[in-house]
Amino acid sequence: MTSGEPLLSSSDPLSAPPPNPLSRISSLGCLCPNASFSSSIFEDTPNDLFDVNEGENLFSAVDKALREGNLEYCSPLKSSFCSAESQILQQFPLKCPPQDRKRMVSWGGSMELQQNSLAFGISGGSSHDPENKSQRIRHKSMQIDDNLSHEENPRLIYVNDPRTTNDKYEFTGNEIRTSKYTLINFLPKNLFIQFHRVAYLYFLAIAALNQLPPLAVFGRTVSLFPLLFVLCVTAIKDGYEDWRRHRSDQNENNREALVLQSGKFQFKKWKKIWAGEVVKICADDTIPCDMVLLGTSDPSGIAYIQTMNLDGESNLKTRYARQETTSMVFEGGTVSGLIRCEQPNRNIYEFTANMEMKGKRFPLSQSNIILRGCQLKNTEWVVGVVVYAGQETKAMLNSAMSPSKRSRLESYMNRETLWLSVFLFTMCLVVALGMGLWLQCHKDRLDSLPYYRKTYFGGRSAGKSYKFYGIPMETFFSFLSSIIVFQIMIPISLYITMELVRLGQSYFMIGDKHMYDSSTDSRFQCRSLNINEDLGQIRYVFSDKTGTLTENKMEFRKASVHGKNYGSSVLMSDTSQDTNITVSRTAAPVGKNRWKLKSEVPVDSELMAFLRKELAGDERIAAHEFFLTLTTCNTVIPILTRSLSSSCMDSEFYEDAEAVDYQGESPDEQALVAAASAYGYTLFERTSGHVVIDVNGEKLRFPNDSVKVLVKGADTSILSILKRDAAEDGHIRHATQSHLNEYSSEGLRTLVIASRDLTDAELEEWQCMYEDASTSLTDRSIKLCQTAALIECNLQLIGATGIEDKLQEGVPEAIESLRQAGIKVWVLTGDKQETAISIGLSCKLLTSNMQQIIINGTSEEECRNLLSDAKAKYGVRTSSCRNWNLKWKRNAESHYLEIPNDTKLSNVPMGFSEKEEGTMSTELALIIDGNSLVYILEKDLESELFDLATSCKVVLCCRVAPLQKAGIVDLIKSRTDDMTLAIGDGANDVSMIQMADVGVGICGQEGRQAVMASDFAMGQFRFLKRLLLVHGHWNYQRVGYLVLYNFYRNAVFVLMLFWYILSTAFSTTSALTDWSSVFYSVIYTSVPTIVVGILDKDLSHKTLLEYPKLYGAGHRQESYNMYLFWITMIDTLWQSLVLFYIPVFTYRESTIDIWSMGSLWTISVVILVNMHLAMDIQRWLLLTHAAVWGSIIITYACVVVLDSIPRFPNYGTIYHLAKSPTYWLSILLIICLALLPRFIFKVLHQTFWPSDIQIAREAEILRKRPNHVQSKPDQSSS
Amino acid sequence: MMNSNATSSSSGVAGSTEISTPRRNSKRPKYSKFTQQELPACKPILTPGWVISAFMLVSIVFIPIGVASLFASRDVVEIVDRYETACIPPASKSHKVEYIQSSEDKTCNRTLRVLKRMKQPIYVYYQLDNFYQNHRRYVKSRSDEQLKYVRSENDTSACKPEDNNGLSIVPCGLIAWSLFNDTYSFSRNNQQLTVNKKGISWKSDREHKFGEKVYPKNFQNGKLIGGAHLNSSIPLSEQEDLIVWMRTAALPTFRKLYGKIEVDLQENELIQVAVENNYNTYSFNGKKKLVLSTTTWLGGKNDFLGIAYLTVGGLSFFLSMAFTVVYLAKPRRLGDSSYLSWNRNPGGH
């Protein structure tokens, strides 16, 4: 998933059918217990059907929207088919694979239980002939075989026969290895991996060049040192990490599980488990490998698992053992059989297999498999057969990191690195040409010059030339050797430094207590280490709504029953407590069982009272059915617990009260069930065959003898299939519709509820058709759809519900801050237009004085017209003008410019400006729906949309499909240079997250896909403000400075060498000792940069949060741009000249020797670059002091050590130098003179052109003085 | 509503899920000033006061140093005599190289006038010009092992092409081979002035770099003689001229210490120098100079440091004045929000 593949691949659906078990029977409301019905369903084995939309609305459990969501997602090919209905997409947060798969799970499971129904002995009808049944089953398995045979080679697992299983195929054992190396292969493998990096290859090439005799500039060992150093550091780091992985692997591998060995379950270490073995898992144990369930402690074969470790969802999921095997396990027999399953893959939501047992074949699906890493809950034990073990388990296959992105600043940096290469090349050329010319001039004297001898004079090789290959070759060699000398001009070490710095920055981001979400106990996570600084330059934020802006904790707020609105008058927050108490009081006398909800639901007293009335009259019946639907028509599992927590006061009342907790996949459904419970309709038992609810103490058991279709779904889909005759209905419909509008304008999520009575004849007829459809081999999904349509018609409207999706804490504030910071927040949601707008209003995205442009065309032409109308009306210019303007903006880069569209508008040339100015007084908001986007994004209207959208302050896209989200991100990304950030929490946001420059995942209710795909993950939306405004700003400032400083640091050193080489007859001599040259960037100056890169802060987080506009520094690229680069380079040139010429003039015509001079230069350059850094440090910590001054001290120490080794020609130098005052005076002069221009420049800049950051910084530091305390907040929000 | 994320703790099912809850330690970041980046820190800003006093400080420090350096430099008395052309007999002016390579007597007499009283010790230097002692080929052409240890006598691979001529050369390499061999003898009023040639090299070099038991061997035996011969009965550690020479100079113009005259020289005294002009600098048009100089705490005569310090100090003083004026004339209140970019161009947002 992390690789960016869609979860459900759009591969040929028939060859790899997603096991979408359908059987909505579990959600079936009041259905007759007709045996024929159940048995007929029984025939329909859930797994092999490709029936995403089969009978969704049928027995109603299903919101239509969901189905369409599925369809859309599963088969993009069908998008045209779906698009007509796709407006409802995302009405629910759960629309993508994870959700529909969850659904499948429970339903598929319930299917298995059909035998139970049979066992009840209620039979009748036609299709319970065993012969017939098995035939049909066989028929189906054939089909599965076909499917499987499409795959190259299915995996064969012989149940309880690991020997045979592992005989033929090389399945891995259950030993997992997350470690990369072993002791033996560590060195070669690690080296191999390391040399994949360009930087190391550069080092290697330089070192190799240096090994050539004519080029040996440095000593051979010395030249290898940098390479060896980095290699060692990285190897040690890798080795340590790997050792830790080894340890955790070992812990994991040595855990024990019960494995069936010679007829008995015995403990066996995890790592010794083989595919094919039968394993028994007890409650709360972690599952050691992917297993197919054979039986559970429950006779019906149900098991509950928690998949927290796998997808982060905490609710329980049901898994089922096949009836065929369950019974055998239960009877104590051993199961043997053959499982054919697909090859291991990383899709945790899919499993296709079949099992052959005693000549029978039956299919296995996702609902029959439990995966490694999950925990068994609420089930005493399960027995299963291992199908995938160890590395091949889905959990292991999914543990890859997300693909890495490269930061914007880094790509700019590469551009500047190119410039540095040009400098390097020029310098080498100068040296080479100089060398050539010099040789040419001295051609005749080369043998008589005392300092240049090209031939041997004595000994055996007299007369031969010595290291002289002719002038052209010498010139060329001189070019190469100057490359070696100047190698650090290309700051390769910068890449390593940056990695370390980002690591440190991540450490602080992760550790930030302000970004810790206590409700989910989740820290901030940095999943990508390459783009920290991009956080400081974000211009567009694309946000999902549900679960991102909102909590995705649904609360039932309002209901419209039979055209009457309830819940509008109640002030929920205030009265919830009271009403709750009244509920319990009133409910108390009714029956023995009182249901205590784990959470409290506010109720509308009017409706409550109404429900107490006799069950008579249309309206009352409608209310009854309304709540019945809420209670039954879902997949929620009630979990009963003896209440221990009831308070003393109530203890007598609640003597045997039970607490009920609802576990479900859909928060909407949970909310509805909980609400129904509060109104007295408590769901307390749900098995695959029946549903038991408690209506005010009276137990109702379904199916009972009436046949009814209960449907809940999105308004657009339900309203179109309502009965359209009665006038009275028309009235209700009207009322309901107006309520719906009202609800959605308040930001509530709406569902419509309808029902229909069915006669037995109708039911039977439908059942036949359904069976045909569900077993058909071709076009099954379409047929099922048609079948569903048969029964889902002429529905009677009962009412509607309004569920509030609460806004997350701090969202409006965060959005407001982001907006002030010049970041455009676009919301891309699957909600309806009204809901989207209302959410937009409530989170302050939209304000009432904004001009709303609404684009919701239903054809290309309409969209085009709407777009051009809007553009004409609001005077948006076309892209050509924009480009011109952009250029203009670039030219004026150094000036302070506001967000581009504002600039654009205020700075347009005469011709345009008049019109613009008038129109731009109002802010624009663009609201566009997914339908229109289909037309726009696929056609040539993209640029029009872009023009319009970028002129608007706010853009809201509603009813967008996941891929459209990515499309919109791409629209911006491909047309501007601006950085984009996408934030979302669900699988539907994955494509968007991966498309954007920075992807942020919210660890929310909807699983971990978004997090897995993201670069950063956090618990709440509001942390985004801190992430961008504070950490983004800091990281950007730090890394920007770090890069410039590193360029400078290396360039000043190289230039210094260069000047010296010019006065050595171009002979690439370095006055510095070899070791000092090598240590310079590794030891002498590296630590302070890293420390400053991690710890320096220009402004405190308080200031940054207080003035979001300071974020604009990142937009204006204030800390890293071409201008700064060139300024830095000019400064570098000056400093290198000072560095070189002060000693030269000081020691002109003196006895100074080359090593003393070199020593002076070494020390000077180190002190200089450290002082330069010290001048720019904005926050001096103890650590910073230690790093900066420590570096200088370490340099001295190194120099002293190097000068104390008699073998070196520089022996004793420093001792002599230190005695001479001239030496110290030169250093002082060099430092002061070299830094003087920079200091003056800095002072002038700060005096006359202070930057925002500078002012804010002054204000922050001087705040203690009363007269500086300003009413700044007021002004800044202007 | 039913989001039972480890919040409730009742019995049964829910209870079982929660057994692990207390065990799982919270991921709440540990609070410390370090992790929250709130360590006490010094945050310097450039207030006008700081700027002005920084410049003042620089000028206060630099100007006296500059003055002192300049005085020190002026105190140094230096006599420089360029002799490489003057010491060629007029007849040989056109073919200097042949002259210098011939074996005739190349003694040449020079007279120096002492301009100012020179206190002892007076250092005698020779100065060469256009001699690239820092050429890479030259610098590398030595064997430090060989100079120190007898056993490393044959360790001459670094010395090519001057490593052996049949036998290993000690000391090998271009540097030793090209040892300077002009000699000077000084006399005053026909009275010999002794030049002390002891202690002209670094003590550390004598003691640790050049072996006491290493004697010159097979030196200057080739066809081409590069420079001075060495007395093969004196160990290298006492061959101070060689030791001085082997500290290769940093720049193409350099001085090397020849010896010390340990008597005072009076003003207007005339010093006769007999120069044995042996060293061939003619092949690369190098100049040769004889220098007599006294020293001060700062070293030899060099006004550069003093001038540079005075200049920087003066500039700083000027800048501090200039900034004072600027801050007085056009003060910008620090941290004044009206300078913020979004407040300055109100049309912007």
UniProtKB/TrEMBL annotation, chain A:
Keywords: ATP-binding, Magnesium, Membrane, Metal-binding, Nucleotide-binding, Translocase, Transmembrane, Transmembrane helix. PANTHER family: PHOSPHOLIPID-TRANSPORTING ATPASE, PROBABLE PHOSPHOLIPID-TRANSPORTING ATPASE. It comes from Actinidia chinensis var. chinensis. It is found in: Membrane. Residues 157-222 form the P-type ATPase N-terminal domain. InterPro entries: ATPase_P-typ_cyto_dom_N, ATPase_P-typ_P_site, ATPase_P-typ_TM_dom_sf, ATPase_P-typ_transduc_dom_A_sf, HAD-like_sf, HAD_sf, P-type_ATPase_IV, P-type_ATPase_N. Residues 1011-1251 form the P-type ATPase C-terminal domain. It is an enzyme of class 7 (translocase). Residues 1-14 have a biased composition (Low complexity). Its cofactor is Mg(2+). GO terms for biological process: phospholipid translocation. ATP binds at residues 544-546, 669, 712, 749, 829-831, 959, 965, 988-989. The chain crosses the membrane at residues 215-236, 418-439, 476-496, 1047-1066, 1078-1095, 1123-1142, 1154-1173, 1180-1202, 1222-1241. One of its GO terms (molecular function) is ATPase-coupled intramembrane lipid transporter activity. Its EC number is 7.6.2.1. Signal peptide: none annotated. Pfam families: Cation_ATPase, PhoLip_ATPase_C, PhoLip_ATPase_N. Residues 1-20 are annotated as: Disordered. NCBIfam families: ATPase-Plipid, ATPase_P-type. This is Phospholipid-transporting ATPase. It is a multi-pass membrane protein.
UniProtKB/TrEMBL annotation, chain B:
Residues 1-33 are annotated as: Disordered. The chain crosses the membrane at residues 50-72, 307-329. Pfam families: CDC50. Its main location: membrane. It is found in: Membrane. Residues 1-17 have a biased composition (Low complexity). This is ALA-interacting subunit. It comes from Actinidia chinensis var. chinensis.
